[in-house]
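$ ./design --mode recover --in tokens.txt
reading tokens...
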């Protein structure tokens, strides 16, 4: 059973039991993937084994959040049936999503930068295909083309990265509507930049509001568009389209130059917004009057100049009087007139605002930018690797609620680290990254387009309070291979001697005795082809086939929830159809609308140890010859908080159903009912 109450002590205990330390001459050892998966994910462990890179370090807090973030990614993979999977931002529906898919484009960059580290390539593949088949409606700004390029740096799949080039170009040119040709910069309303209630929108209202309005030339959208243009140029070069490569390389170069020249404030020593409108409160081209966290976004894409003048801006991140809150980075500096003023509520509950609260979205961006600064900028300014680990730990701490549960929410008080919003939609929010920070930052895997693998862990030197004595990561996909990276300061943890070791496909290929950079050649192999089994039971549009029905609890929304393509077992947000807590047989049925050949089902049941449990007995039936007939299935006992697979000889029918008996004093919550055609169809 997947842990529904994530407890750091349990994970730490398991990892300690697996790794008691060994003398330097001991046989080299790895991580016990099965034991870690079962400790972290319980009955859902099968989904993770073989898919994720496994990681452990001397900091069990980082380890716990690392595995929680894989559970978060898993929960946000929505199965759209024939259209594949798409990554969602909120677990359940919100009013501003793209219907009927529950997709939003603003977090796609994070979704792809996290999912690129899965050994199962389907999830990133499907999200990219969905977004470039119409899913990217530009509801918000994004840096999706850059994220697709980043995915290529990991998997090395030239065909995969070039197939969407025409649509990338089309989407890029649609943003001309937000391009000021006189200034050579993009502008946007902060709300459509996913950052409502920022300085430009609040000041454009005279401090009265800030949800809408406040069009501005921002470091964010201009960085995104420069990074997207650069990515399109590189992808076009791979495709042999030299004209497009030259065109978009020039666009990226010019936009970067304009941004550095015009969005850098000599007065504030920071990248800032300029207003794009004139009204009673602001005027066109006027710079905003306070520093914001968004000013670090250029470093996320290596767009900031490498010099002492620009690097000095990072002092603002470390200054408690400016952007350094006690619990994490503030989205705007504390001296701003409207810092932390709460404008918007949903009933009595505060809504999201970015006028000071910690926001995981921008915290991730800042840490990615800091990682670049520390890895390959000649002048990193005032920040150090110790700062990186300290801020990473601060960020990890935000994932843990006061009662010890791991549950990332939308925004946090920068002084206390406690959630501000606390809305029902906010639980397990996927609008940020963390796995990528561990793998590219702490572990230091720096993906490259050439046939090289480069490692440079961002750990502080020995003796630093933020340092780590050891870590190991295994099964990291890279250019068709699997990498393992080990850091062992004393050489007693893993039996590989002291220092930093890189392995490719289980074979040591490089070692150094101290922290530092390792760069070695690697022969690129074809990217593995993912399994693309299609769920035949997904109901995207309520009221359309497949049509669910049940013997009890006939609420239409509850019925839909069991066939909506979403699987998660977090108790904070209910998911699925719930039966009655009664004795005797009950059923949940699906009408597919036409005769359909099936040979397999996947059933997901939720259990909380209180009201819900998996069924005591169950079977799958099909309507054959006008009567329900049990299928001669091969199946295991029903799993709670995991997926139960049921197989049978292929049968063609229009209607199928799950018949079950609940356990005494328990109801059954069917999280998802999936049906599949015979293998190969």
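writing sequence...
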């Amino acid at each position: 059973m997947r842990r529904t109450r994530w407890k750091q002590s349990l994970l730490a205990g398991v990892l300690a039991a697996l790794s008691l330390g060994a003398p330097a001459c001991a046989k080299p050892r790895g991580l016990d993937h099965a034991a870690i998966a079962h400790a972290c994910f319980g009955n859902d462990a099968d989904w993770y084994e073989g898919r994720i890179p496994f990681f452990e370090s001397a900091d069990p807090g980082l380890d716990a959040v690392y595995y929680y973030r894989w559970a978060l990614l898993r929960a946000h993979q929505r199965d759209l049936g024939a259209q594949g999977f798409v990554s969602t931002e909120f677990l359940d529906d919100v009013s501003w999503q793209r219907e009927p898919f529950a997709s939003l484009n603003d977090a796609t960059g994070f979704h792809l930068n996290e999912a690129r580290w899965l050994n199962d390539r389907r999830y990133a593949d499907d999200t990219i295909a969905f977004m470039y088949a119409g899913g990217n409606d530009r509801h918000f700004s994004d840096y999706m083309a850059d994220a697709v390029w980043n995915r290529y740096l990991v998997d090395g799949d030239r065909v995969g990265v070039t197939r969407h080039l025409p649509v990338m170009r089309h989407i890029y040119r649609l943003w001309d509507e937000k391009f000021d040709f006189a200034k050579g910069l993009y502008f946007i309303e902060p709300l459509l930049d996913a950052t409502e209630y920022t300085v430009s929108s609040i000041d454009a209202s005279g401090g009265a509001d800030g949800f809408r309005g406040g069009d501005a030339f921002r470091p964010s959208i201009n960085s995104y568009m420069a990074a997207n243009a650069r990515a399109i140029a590189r992808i076009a070069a791979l495709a042999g389209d030299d004209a497009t490569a030259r065109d978009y390389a020039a666009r990226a170069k010019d936009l970067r130059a304009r941004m550095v020249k015009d969005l850098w404030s000599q007065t504030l020593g920071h990248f800032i917004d300029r207003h794009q409108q004139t009204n009673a409160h602001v005027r066109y081209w006027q710079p905003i009057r306070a520093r914001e966290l968004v000013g670090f976004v250029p470093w996320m894409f290596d767009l900031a100049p490498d010099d002492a003048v620009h690097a000095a801006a990072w002092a603002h991140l470390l200054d408690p009087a400016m952007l350094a809150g006690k619990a994490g980075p503030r989205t705007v500096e504390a001296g701003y007139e409207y810092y932390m003023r709460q404008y918007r509520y949903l009933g009595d509950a505060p809504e999201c605002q970015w006028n000071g609260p910690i926001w995981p979205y921008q915290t991730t961006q800042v840490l990615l930018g800091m990682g670049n600064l520390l890895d390959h900028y000649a002048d990193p300014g005032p920040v150090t690797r110790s700062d990186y680990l300290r801020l990473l730990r601060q960020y990890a701490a935000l994932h843990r609620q006061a009662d010890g549960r791991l549950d990332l929410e939308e925004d946090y008080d920068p002084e206390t680290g406690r959630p501000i919003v606390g809305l029902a939609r906010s639980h397990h929010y996927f609008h940020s990254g963390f796995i990528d920070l561990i793998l590219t930052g702490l572990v230091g895997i720096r993906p490259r387009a050439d046939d090289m693998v480069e490692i440079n862990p961002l750990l502080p030197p020995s003796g630093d309070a933020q340092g780590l004595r050891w870590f190991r990561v295994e099964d990291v996909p890279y250019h068709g291979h699997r990498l393992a990276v080990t850091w062992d300061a004393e050489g007693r943890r893993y039996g590989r001697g002291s220092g930093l070791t890189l392995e490719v496909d289980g074979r040591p290929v490089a070692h150094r005795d101290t922290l530092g950079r390792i760069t070695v050649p690697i022969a690129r192999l074809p990217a593995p082809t993912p399994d693309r089994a299609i769920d035949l039971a997904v109901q995207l549009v309520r009221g359309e086939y497949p049509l669910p029905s049940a013997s009890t609890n006939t609420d239409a929304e509850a019925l839909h929830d069991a066939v909506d393509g979403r699987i998660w077992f977090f108790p904070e947000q209910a998911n699925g159809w719930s039966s009655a807590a009664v004795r005797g047989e009950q059923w949940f049925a699906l009408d597919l609308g036409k005769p359909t050949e099936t040979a397999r089902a996947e059933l997901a049941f939720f259990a909380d140890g209180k009201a819900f449990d998996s069924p005591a007995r169950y079977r799958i039936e099909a309507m054959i010859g006008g009567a329900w007939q049990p299928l001669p299935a091969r199946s295991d006992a029903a799993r709670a908080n995991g997926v139960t697979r049921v197989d049978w000889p292929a049968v063609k029918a229009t209607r199928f159903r799950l018949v079950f008996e609940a356990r005494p004093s328990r109801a059954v919550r069917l999280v998802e009912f999936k049906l599949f055609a015979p293998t190969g169809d």
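exit 0
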